[in-house]
Design a protein that fits this description.
- Chain A: InterPro entries: FA58C, Galactose-bd-like_sf, IFT25.
- Chain A: This is F5/8 type C domain-containing protein.
- Chain A: Pfam families: F5_F8_type_C (PF00754).
- The structure holds two protein chains of two kinds.
- Chain A is mainly β.
- Chain A has no helices and eight strands.
- Chain A has one domain: Galactose-binding domain-like (Jelly Rolls).
- Chain B has a six-stranded mixed sheet, sandwiched between helices.
- Chain B has a single domain (2-220), classed as P-loop containing nucleotide triphosphate hydrolases (Rossmann fold), CATH 3.40.50.
- Chain B has seven helices and six strands, in the order βαββαβααβαβαα.
- By secondary structure, chain B is of the alpha/beta class.
- The chains are: A mainly beta, B alpha/beta.
- At the A-B interface, loops of A face strand 1 and helix 6 of B.
- Bound molecules: guanosine-5'-triphosphate and magnesium ion (MG).
- Residues 23-24, 44, 69 of chain B line the site of magnesium ion.
């Protein structure tokens, strides 16, 4: 059983990128989920850009950390469905320019429960014409089966 | 790993300058490969958008220009910033028979600079100064030399053309496309440096790299 400290968005663990809005065959999309910040996916111009990360199972997400360059604004939506549809807004946040280095962004998780199968990441603005994404890391647990009947407790 | 190797870059290219300067004529001639010259003036309302693909010679790269032909008429002033938002290249056009349009270029460039948010001077990408209607030799009020000096002062490349005469209309668009590709390559280099990857292509693209003629930035076209 993987622990909460393990990155769930790894191709080697069954995660995949279901959709992206731009592609450069020299920098394939799987570079974002190979666990390595040296390899990357780069946009080829224009905004907005979108990426859908599909996790191998439902995960109750505790943390999302993205390594990138030149992103100016992230949006994130999540879906619990088997297919990537019916997304709900998770967060929208501005990002400072990393200038000469990486941007390491931890997305805000405003709700207490962020259970998801798919994460849709949107880049609506860049600090330059192109942005690169080097690593998407998603941490969390497999959700406990929802309690049925009166056993459900309020915190 | 596929080695189809076709790279498509996309840029929002805004064409701006005074009303009547000849922006739509240039855009329509370029877009129609010289087939459509608008003889009678039809003022652009808000902004007309069209797409044109430019292949970069000797590469597997093409640039899709999302051309935004802006309305220069003052009544649309409040919309200009919105249409400039997210632009990554531009053509700044004036009419060589019209001194006002020549003088207004600095105002237009200022708008571009504001849209780029001043913080990052590369954010908006390449731009050129285009002097048009050079077929009007008798009515010409602005010389080539004046145009070149202005371009130098504004830090832009200078081009002159005539939509009516179908002369050199494509050149500024080709330049912008090629410069946008250079910008992409430059950005790639920078990203590799940040990621700590040697300036060689990453392993996944070695095969592609062999198929591609060596392209040094700065000398395409
Ligand atoms: N002689 C000559 N006339 C031109 C040329 N290009 C455009 N014109 C004429 O100039 C007038 C204005 O041209 P447009 O291209 O519509 O001008 P515009 O810059 O798009 O103007 P707005 O849409 O109002 O911003 C038209 O009557 C054109 O026929 C040219 O190369 N030579
Ligand atoms: Mg027009």
């Amino acid at each position: 059983m993987p622990s909460a400290h393990e990155n769930r968005a790894l191709a080697s663990a069954g995660a995949k990128i279901s959709m992206v809005t731009s592609s450069d065959t020299s920098h394939p999309v799987d570079n974002m989920i190979d666990g390595n910040t040296k390899s990357f996916w780069m946009t080829t111009g224009l905004f907005p850009q979108e990426i859908i990360v599909s996790l191998p199972t439902l995960i109750s997400i505790t943390k999302i950390i993205i390594t990138s360059t030149k992103v100016a604004h992230w949006t994130a939506d999540i879906s619990m469905n088997e297919k990537p549809n019916h997304f709900e807004r998770l967060t929208a946040q501005d990002v400072d320019d990393g200038d000469q280095g990486f941007q390491l962004v931890t997305l805000n998780l405003p709700k207490s429960d962020n259970t998801a199968r798919h994460i849709r990441l949107g880049i609506t603005k860049g600090h330059g014409p192109f942005v690169s994404i080097h690593k998407i890391a998603v941490y969390g647990n497999e959700p406990t089966v929802p309690a049925t009947g009166p056993a459900a407790t309020e915190e | 790993m596929t080695i189809t190797g076709k790279l498509v870059l996309r840029t929002k290219c805004v064409v701006l300058g005074n009303s009547g300067a000849g922006k739509s004529a240039i855009v329509q001639m370029f877009h129609s490969d010289g087939a459509q010259y608008p003889k009678t003036y039809a003022m652009t309302i808000h902004c007309d958008v069209c797409v044109k693909v430019v292949n970069i010679p000797d590469t597997n790269v093409s640039v899709e220009l999302f051309i935004h032909d802006l309305a220069g008429y003052d009544a649309f002033q409040e919309y200009w910033p919105r249409y400039l938002d997210g632009a990554t290249s531009f053509l700044l056009v004036y009419d060589v028979t019209n001194v006002e349009s020549f003088k207004a270029t600095s105002k237009w460039l200022h708008l571009v600079q504001k849209a780029r948010g001043a913080k990052d001077k590369d954010a908006i990408g390449p731009g050129v100064l285009v002097a048009t209607k050079i077929d009007q030799t008798l009515r010409r009020a602005i010389t080539t030399k004046q145009g070149e000096e202005l371009a130098k002062a504004l830090g832009l490349m200078y081009f002159e053309c005539s939509a009516a005469g179908n002369t050199d209309v494509d050149a500024p668009f080709y330049y912008v496309s090629s410069a946008f590709y250079d910008l992409y390559e430059e950005n790639l280099k920078n990203v590799r440096r940040i990621a700590g990857v040697p300036d060689e292509q990453p392993a996944t693209s070695l095969a592609l790299d062999k198929l591609k003629p060596r392209q040094q930035s700065g000398d395409s076209l």
